Amino acid sequence: MSMQTKVWKKSDNTEEMKEAIREAAELLHQEQVVAFPTETVYGLGADASNPSAVQRIFEAKGRPSDNPLIVHVADRKQVEQLVDEIPTMARKLMETFWPGPLTLIMKSNGSAAGNVTAGLTTIAIRMPDHPLALALLRASETPLAAPSANRSGRPSPTTAEHVYQDLDGRIAGILDGGPTGVGVESTVLDCTSEIPVILRPGGVTKEDLETILPTVMMDPAMINEQHRPKSPGMKYTHYAPEAPLWLIDGDDEFFENQVEKLKEENFRIGIIASEELLNKLDHNRIISCGSRENLEQVAERLYGALREFKESDVDVILCEAFPETGVGAAVMNRLNKAAVKKVTAY
Ligand code: TXA
Ligand code: MG
Fold first, then answer.
1. What is the 3-state secondary structure (H, E, C) of 3-32?
2. What ligand has the least distance to the C-alpha of 240?
3. In 3-state terms, the chain is what percent helix, strand and coil (to 5)?
């Protein structure tokens, strides 16, 4: 698989961006796949009604075919094309959180291509909150199936450059919209049961959802690894940096001790840490995720940090554990999956 990947550079010139959108939509009509920015991470889009276009997503990413895709829509009408009935709960959530980082699982009416839902009877739908994503959806006049635009198993892309690193030569184009804002993917919420269930924590937090819904459950598979996850994608290795990641769960002194111990054993260490911890460490390979008091900032920087350390430079990456409140739940969900080892003081 090798093709010319066109990059439409980010531009302040609206005419130029309009032309880029027009060209990207044209490629989507020709069954090609195109990467575009959303408010969470970059997505890799294809016409959700066209199985051969959707097949190209799986090929470009190297994604297992039993892992279903999220369908992105520009408006409510496109949701009605994909499901027979919108549950009242889902309707309320759309009014409050759309456009935004919330994906709703509903019963599919079977009109999306079969490989979008990987044969499931349900379908995942969201309306992204990004002007370029919405413009592309309108111009292509079809819902777009779009997973994160990384090679399967790698950290999700939060810049056009990350997409290029992973998919140059494998996709038709990349729309550059600059760095994404939220930094972690959307929350996936199953609305097919009476009590909605969070299958993947993300940009809309459990606390946010509880302002609208009386009860929200966490998928037991996220808490207890004995359960089979209901979201097929949650069972695969994910978000892995090049070097092995160790998640260090303890106070700052505990973290410092881990660093010292590994240094004595001549490990080359990379560190991902908060500003607070970083100020206490004397080490030259450190990437800051921002303040631990500002978990939105940590989420925004997380995937960039995971991509920063190269295999050739470090033997191990030590990463601080963050509080699991608010968007911290999504950050820790990703870090737990990215880590090959957890070192805990408790
Ligand atoms: O923020 C996001 O959600 C990004 C941007 C591009 O929109 N997209 C994204 O897609 O993260 P992806 O494919 O990387 O993750 C989709 C997740 C997977 O865990 C998948 O298994 C789950 O959603 N999913 C999709 N359809 C589902 C369904 N019908 N039932 C349960 N889980 C589903
Ligand atoms: Mg993904």
1. CCCEEECCCCCHHHHHHHHHHHHHHHHCCC
2. 2
3. 35, 20, 50
User: Within the chain, where are the H helices?
Assistant: 14-29, 51-61, 76-82, 88-97, 131-140, 160-167, 206-209, 220-223, 252-264, 275-278, 295-308, 328-338
CA atoms within 13 A on the CB side of 4: 3
6-234: CATH number: 3.90.870.10
Q: Over the stretch 175-216, which tens digit does the pLDDT of each residue have?
A: 999 999 999 999 999 999 999 999 999 999 999 999 999 999
Task: Looking at the CA of 106, name the nearest ligand.
Answer: 1
Domain limits, the chain: 6-234, 245-344
CATH assignment of 245-344, given 3.40.50.12780, 3.40.50.2000, 3.40.50.11030, 3.60.20.10? 3.40.50.11030
Distance CA 111, CA 314 (A): 48
- Ion ligand 2: residues, CB < 5 A: 148
Give the model confidence (pLDDT) of 17-55 as tens digits. 999 999 999 999 999 999 999 999 999 999 999 999 999
Interval between CA 96 and ligand 1 midpoint (Å): 20
Q: 69 CA distance to ligand 1 centroid (A)?
A: 5
- Say how far apart CA 149 and CA 42 lie, in whole Å: 6
